[in-house]
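Quick one: structure tokens for this chain, please?
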Amino acid sequence: MHLPQHLAIIMDGNGRWAQQRNLPRIFGHRRGVEAVKVVVEECRALGIPYLTLFAFSSENWGRPAEEVTALMELLGRFLEQELNNLLEQDIRLNVIGDIRQLPVGVRGVLERTVARTAPNRKMVLTLALSYGARNEILRAVRTLAGKVAAGELSAEQIDEEVFSRALDTCNLPDPDFLVRTSGEMRISNFLLWQLAYAELYFTEVLWPDFDARELGNALEDFASRQRRFGLTAQQIDSSDDRD
């Protein structure tokens, strides 16, 4: 089966999962962490080299303070508990987003985990934390504008490659497959530049119920698609025949 090189997931539905069971929302987030572990292990076993998870958006800071605090505590525990597993599985942790807004303790654990796993090579697990694509693009524009003002770069030199290198994802290939759970059909300010040619997959399954079987269903759907990048199907078929 043809697998994506870079799978990106918007993990949605934790709160609704809990509400359906008359439980506090934090119970859904806890179950969502278990789903993260399952999907990471399955992607590693399948040989998908890049996995990016939308874990906490810049807009999520507007949620009730007690929920944000609980989410930060969950993140810190997840990083501490999963470090040995990441090392054993040869998975490198990466992060995108404005992590300066994270609590100092959580940011410290995150930075230590990123440093400890830096030599790992089998898979890159990227967490989007305090992330918003518009903010990322604005930060990239400011960086490039500063270089132009300093005479380090001319406006004419700014092309897609130069702009991509100014983004948080400069060390990652663009995602070729985006999955969103919970039935919502939007990308919610996630990787707006990078998803230009990604295949999109939406499922009604809530994130805590997204398991290896559901991941397999999504990957089978991806494998059935023909990615044309603006070309015709005949052009792609002709290229495949030459290969």
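Residues 23 and 129 are 25 Å apart (CA to CA).
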